[in-house]
Design brief:
The complex is a heterodimer. Chain A is about 70% helix and about 0% strand. Chain A is mostly helical. Chain B has one domain. By secondary structure, chain B is mostly helical. Chain B is globular. Classes of the chains: A mainly alpha, B mainly alpha. Chains A and B meet through helix 2 and helix 3 of A and helix 2, helix 5, helix 6 and helix 12 of B.
């Protein structure tokens, strides 16, 4: 009973906030609806028993990716009129994508109702004793270790690429060398002199 | 407790629902009371360190000061700036306050005394604390004013930076405990060298304990990292436009977060509800008292630091987070996992 209620609550919120993401006029509101959609999707994952995926969804998407989205959208100076102007031009293309997605959903549901796919051999039998994290970790670090590391390398290359593209050395910047500051002692910096009156100081 | 209500003739689901609601109240109300008392304690500690008296007028020794402040704030008018985005302006403090209370669901107060004993307890805390930034960013944006916006930008950059190193520090603890469940993490800290309880006594994890304490201050934007509210630069930061209860919700949420971080320090590194010494007579003292004593100790450290350390400059804050904490904590992840591979998990195969 509670499960069913929770499912419908999360499902309705995911769908409606997804719709509001594209319907709301203010881009910042769009991002916020998107965040709500992510959050409720995580709730659905918890109901499925995939608590690890749910937590990752919240940490990665809600906690990091969406913050950057929100940031960029808040900083941009957006002209709403200009944003709406292209609507008619993009309409055919948008309809095409919608049709493709619809066809995929129909095909998917049709095939699913035709019966389960018989796999000759299960990729990895799931041990019901293991928790989510242990099961995923066991697969990720044994069977899929090369794919996992390849994904890591792709991300590393992308990160280095982004830094190389955007980094520029600026001249005239006063950097702070904290080790040098901490090494400095009073006797290096201050000198006591006995200066006669009426004469300038020679440094 | 679910079983108790079932014996009264309720269905399992009804009993579960009722007992969860009661559990939430049993945790949330004392947390709020603790926040009120700790604000008072905080002010007394600063006062003592500055050779002042601190609040001493309302009630005996000024004990009721926080409640008087609460009543005052409650009776004030809520002012919403005309240029503000009204809905988000009101939602933002509610988000901060709710999130500050949500994380308490997985904190174990005693063996088995926890609202939600989930497998992914630590990940849940990480997820919830990564949500905390929204309350501040939304406040900054919805206020439609310059200082709050600067503050929101600072806050989000600061919180994201320190979350990265906090994540690595938590991974070290999780590797050592072999579980994400907070109760399991506490239990795994029993009996270092046969008589000490706490990961902090482990030479591999002690540096992590220190770094976690500092990162916790940065994550909760406490002094010396309170750049989001640096009054000399940003008036009151993201709270500038807030008044009355909305302001009070930020205040409460901030302190609830600070207590949570103190509790996490105690649970992850200093044995949580276990006594500090693994000595049988100490186990007669209820575990919850040990936990409270540790939380209070860390809270004292927090206000001690606030009373004595000057505020960081923003670039120094970023340098500390990205150039020092991040590489060090990453190095310790390698060190701890390598050590465990060589010893606990059977060495090279």
């Amino acid at each position: 009973m509670i499960h069913v209620l929770a499912f419908y609550l999360f499902a309705i919120l995911v769908v409606s906030s997804g719709a509001l993401t594209i319907l709301s006029r203010n881009p910042v509101h769009s991002v916020l609806w998107l965040i709500l959609a992510f959050f409720n999707a995580a709730g659905l994952m918890v109901l499925l028993g995939a608590e690890f995926i749910a937590m990752l969804l919240v940490i990665v998407y809600v906690g990091a990716v969406a913050v950057l989205f929100l940031f960029v959208v808040m900083m941009l100076d957006i002209d709403f009129a200009e944003l709406r102007a292209g609507f008619v031009d993009y309409l055919p293309f948008g309809l095409l994508i919608a049709l493709v997605l619809l066809a995929e959903i129909v095909l998917g549901i049709g095939l699913w109702s035709a019966g389960p796919i018989e796999l000759a051999q299960r990729a990895a039998p799931v041990n019901p004793e293991l928790s989510n994290i242990q099961a995923i970790g066991g697969l990720l670090y044994t069977r899929y270790i090369f794919l996992f590391e390849a994904a890591g390398i792709v991300l590393l290359v992308a990160m280095i690429g982004a830094i190389v593209l955007t980094h520029r050395a600026r001249g005239g910047v006063k950097g702070q060398n904290i080790a040098k500051q901490n090494r400095r002692r009073p006797q290096d910096a201050v000198r006591n002199i006995n200066q006669p009156t009426g004469q300038g100081v020679e440094l | 407790m679910t079983a108790f209500f079932q014996n009264l003739g309720m269905s399992f689901e009804g009993a579960w629902f009722l007992s969860t609601i009661i559990g939430i109240l049993v945790i949330a109300l004392p947390v709020m009371l603790a926040v009120a008392m700790l604000i008072y304690a905080d002010r007394k500690i600063w006062a003592a360190m500055a050779l002042r008296r601190g609040p001493n007028v309302v009630g005996p020794f000024g004990l009721l000061q926080s409640f008087a402040d609460g009543a005052k704030v409650f009776l004030q008018e809520t002012i919403i700036p005309s240029a503000a985005n009204k809905t988000l302006f009101i939602i933002a403090p509610i988000i901060t306050f709710t999130i500050a209370l949500m994380a308490w669901a997985v904190i174990p107060f005693q063996v088995g005394v926890v609202l939600a004993n989930i497998n992914v307890g630590l990940l849940y805390i990480l997820a919830i604390s990564s949500l905390g930034v929204y309350g501040i960013v939304l406040a900054g944006w919805a206020s439609n004013s310059k200082y709050p916006f600067y503050s929101a930008i600072r806050a989000s950059a600061q919180m994201i930076s320190y979350e990265v190193s906090i994540g690595f520090i938590l991974i070290c603890v999780v590797l050592w405990a072999g579980s994400f469940n907070l109760t399991a993490i506490v239990e795994s800290q029993k009996g270092y060298y046969g008589f000490l309880n706490g990961n902090g006594f482990n030479p591999l994890l002690f540096p992590m304990a220190i770094m976690f304490l500092i990162s916790a201050m940065a994550e909760t934007a406490r002094a010396p990292f309170d750049l989001t509210e640096a009054e000399s630069e940003l008036v009151a930061g993201y709270q500038t436009e807030y008044s009355s209860m909305a302001f009070a919700l930020y205040w409460l949420g901030e302190y609830a977060n600070v207590i949570l971080m103190c509790a996490l320090n105690a649970i992850l590194f200093w044995g949580g509800y276990l006594p500090p010494l693994d000595w049988a007579p100490l186990y007669y003292v209820p575990g919850i008292l040990w936990l409270f004593a540790k939380i209070l100790f860390f809270f004292f450290v927090f206000s001690w630091v606030k009373a004595t350390v000057p505020r960081y400059r923003y670039d120094q804050l970023m340098r500390l987070g990205w150039k020092i904490f991040l590489p060090t904590s990453l190095f310790f992840v390698f060190l701890v996992s390598g050590f465990l591979m060589l010893t606990r998990y059977g060495g090279a195969q």
